[in-house]
Amino acid sequence: MLKIQETSYRYQRERQLFEGLNLTVKPGEIVGLYGNSGMGKTTMAKIIAGYLNPDSGKITVDDQNHHKKSPNPVQLIWQHPEQAVNPRWKMKQVLAEGGVIQKELYEQFDIKESWMQRYPSELSGGELQRFCLARALMPTTKYIIADEITTMLDALTQAQIWRVMLSLKTQRQLGILAISHDKILLDRISDRVINFEDLIKSPS
Ligand SMILES: Nc1ncnc2c1ncn2[C@@H]1O[C@H](COP(=O)(O)OP(=O)(O)OP(=O)(O)O)[C@@H](O)[C@H]1O
């Protein structure tokens, strides 16, 4: 289980963003998280994935500190996939850095071999996001923190991506924390939906 326990954070010289935050995501569970802009959802996502250190509290996977593990069993996917890849590298070089994509993921995300010869700017946003998801879904990946991953995409691509994520949740007991302002989407894909405001007021 992914556990976020009594976690607090504030940016230097800023107000306390959150304090004593508790949240769990079970294997094979999708937890939907929404909330007003600027409340700290992305900051929390960065802390869970180990990009930022919390001021206090702890984040564990199966009761272990996963941040020391390589590769990290918790992978963060952003809203803007172009920021997650080196724009000067062709896709095959991007892939070489992050490991091999499993064959079945190529098929599930409809990734074309021909993309490997292109630069990131030569793929559409949806194609690049599917590539980033497939790359993050290593066999060791147990949890995906999906921070607005389909917000910029058209309805068809959004549906395609979530169809694959829902099948991975069942097939390999992937746990997903889906952060979005799209409450309708969250209600459709999630096992439970949480308002970030409630999370920072009363621990769940
Ligand atoms: N590096 C930083 N230094 C100082 N303040 C920051 C930094 N990054 C973010 N913030 C501030 O922290 C607050 C929380 O930001 P965050 O991106 O976590 O919110 P959010 O809930 O994800 O918002 P949104 O829904 O708009 O994406 C905001 O007020 C933001 O301006």
Major sheet description: 5 strands, parallel
Distance between the termini: 14 Å
CATH topology: Rossmann fold
Shape label = globular
Count of individual beta strands: 8
CATH superfamily: P-loop containing nucleotide triphosphate hydrolases
Oligomer: single chain
- Indicate the low-confidence ranges by residue numbers: none
Category by helix and strand content: alpha/beta
Strand order of the largest sheet: 5-6-7-3-8
How many helices? The count is 7
Q: What's the CATH class label?
A: Alpha Beta
User: What is the annotated CATH architecture?
Assistant: 3-Layer(aba) Sandwich
Ligands in the model, by name, code or SMILES, are: adenosine-5'-triphosphate
How many separate structural domains? 1
Q: Roughly what is the average pLDDT, rounded to an integer?
A: 91
Radius of gyration equals 17 Å
Helical fraction equals 25-40%
Encode the helix/strand succession as letters: EEEHEEHHHEHEHEH
Strand content: 15-25%
Pfam families: ABC_tran
InterPro entries: AAA+_ATPase, ABC_transp_ATP-bind, ABC_transporter-like_ATP-bd, ABC_transporter-like_CS, P-loop_NTPase
Organism: Salegentibacter echinorum
Keywords: ATP-binding, Nucleotide-binding, Transport
